[in-house]
Amino acid sequence: MSVPQQFFLSEQQFVKCIEIKVPVVIEAAEVQVVVDNHVTLPELAIKIDKIIASVRDLRGNLVFVDETQSGDIVLVPGHKHQRDVKVRKIIISGTLHKQIFYVNKNNEVRHTSEDIPFTKMVDLSKPKEVDNRNDVFVQFHSIDVDVNWELVRASRVHQTAVIVLTAKVAEDRQIFVQTCPRPRECPEGNLVRDGGLEIWADAAHPVFWGASNVAQTTITHGGSFAAELGRLNPQLPGSLFQMISRGIVAGRQYRLTFFVREDVLGSGNSAFTLNAEVLFFDDSGVQIGIGSQSLASTSIPETAYSQVQITTPITRDNVASAMVRFSFNPSHGNTNTVKVDDVVLECVPLTTNF
To answer: Dihedrals φ, ψ of 299, to 5°?
Structure first.
């Protein structure tokens, strides 16, 4: 029976680990117990039809030793834990239950049963060190019983039973394990909160969005409000952004859809660009991907909203979150602004070819 091996692995990237308590197999031993006995039947028999045997009340008691405090092996007291405690032996005990079916002199099949206790001491290949003797226990697997019998006299049966089993010495230990990447399931619906920009704390601060040089506007594509970038000062940069962690999974593409419209102010000097981006981050906040598109002011209509779509590259295995960001970048002398409304970020389903 093989025992798990311990080895060291150097990761090239940060990984996520959690602490769990699991049974660790210390030693596995193949055990054979021979139970030989005679039984007297309640009446005379012509023959034994069959014997069905099973093992009940199987228990394993461990013998611990201390080999370091002296040159001799000293039994460790049961009430005290020592740092250098080792497991040396397993004392296996149980009951062999047998159902004996026989044919009496009237050719009738009758039945009787018996329970025979047994004990077996097993030495491990070598003493195994444990962390805490109170967390060490024995597990039994692959229990098999084979019975041979001989009808010595009409009422006396000689039986030899061979019990074969695997005894595993295990200890509950707290270890750190690396967790698997989250399932690559494509979530449904809009991942952006308040994509319609309807909820505002005041005229310059949407509740679910971060904003700089942004103002509320009632000239919308849908709903009651939209966001106007550059409204506070069209000659200064502006931004509108939102962090998203729900529904960002590995191995997928995401599609950003939004509507834009230019607003002509003052002398009507249109000299700005609008950058729309979807940035991806790992658990440490390190950027690991981006999908973006830059719109010149000359490509944005002044009289109606226009739809824009961006499809991102496939996300990496360690992706954890994303940011949707609109950046207003004016050039010298710009007087115009840009409105953004009805923002949707959705996972793109994989295409299946039949």
So the answer is: -95, 0
Asked whether residue 274 falls in the same domain as residue 331, the answer is: yes
Q: Are 239 and 327 in contact (CB under 8 A)?
A: yes
Mean of pLDDT values over 11-30: 78
Laid out side by side, the sheet with 272-281 consists of: 210-212, 238-244, 321-330, 272-281, 287-296
Q: How many other CB atoms are there within 10 angstroms of residue 199's CB atom? A: 12
Please measure the distance between the N-terminal and C-terminal CA atoms of the chain and give it in whole angstroms: 46
Q: Quick check: 173 and 50 in contact, CB under 8 A?
A: no
Element counts in the chain: helices (H) and strands (E) = 0, 19
Q: Are 129 and 26 in contact, with CB atoms under 8 Å apart? A: no
- The one-letter code for the residue type at 3 is V
Locate 203 and state its tokens. 């005229």
Give SS3 for 134: helix
How many domains are contained in the chain?
2
Top pLDDT among 343 and 23 is at 343
Res 11: pLDDT = 46
Asked if 151 and 286 sit in the same domain, the reply is no
Q: Phi and psi (nearest 5°) for 36?
A: -115, 130
Per-residue model confidence as pLDDT tens digits over 182-201: 556 778 899 999 999 999 99
Pair of tokens at residue 134: 């109170």
Residue 147 belongs to domain spanning: 17-178
Looking at the predicted structure, is the pLDDT value of residue 6 above 90? no
| Spatial separation of the C-alpha atoms in residues 229 and 272, rounded to whole Å | 11
Which pLDDT score is estimated for 182? Answer: 55
Q: What is the mean pLDDT of the chain?
A: 87
In a shared domain, residues 135 and 210: no
